[in-house]
Design brief:
Radius of gyration: 16 Å
Structural class: alpha+beta
Number of helices: 5
Distance between the termini: 40 Å
Oligomer: single chain
Strand order of the largest sheet: 3-5-4
Order of helices and strands: EEHHEHHEEH
Number of strands: 5
Strand content: 5-15%
Length: 130
């Protein structure tokens, strides 16, 4: 079995590549194992004090906005079932329950915008933030 090589999303290097959570675990712990929330970055683009995502708010917002846009495309209707949310996020039941605990419901479905907001750690990104 061959090992999958990871590449930095920004520069394409395979040297020193690390997993980055677009929405930090401190912002939304239930998405810790959500593959859509993962991006690979080299050490420079991950941790550098000038250009790294952890220190460059504009870059951080770009990475987050990409995730938010995917969710908006993948969930293209106003109300979502639990199963539809789970299918896109591909997370286990316990983290899904935690994520949906505070999300507004309409009858037996979840309000799309509120699900996206919960996935974004409570704050939607707007273009002006990027």
């Amino acid at each position: 079995m061959t090992k999958e090589i990871k590449f930095c999303k920004v520069c394409g290097t395979s040297y020193g590549v690390e997993l980055h959570h677009r929405i930090y675990r401190s912002e939304c712990k239930p998405l810790e194992n959500c593959k859509l929330n993962h991006v690979y970055l080299c050490n420079k683009h991950h941790r550098d004090h000038k250009v790294g995502v952890h220190f460059n708010k504009k870059f951080d917002n770009e990475i987050k906005l990409e995730f938010q846009n995917w969710l908006e495309i993948l969930w293209n209707k106003p109300y979502l079932t639990r199963e539809e949310i789970k299918e896109v996020l591909e997370i286990a039941d316990k983290p899904l329950n935690s994520l949906l605990k505070t999300v507004e419901r309409h009858k037996d479905k979840y309000v799309r915008e509120e699900v996206i907001r919960a996935c974004m750690g409570g704050k939607l990104i707007i273009e002006e933030d990027v």
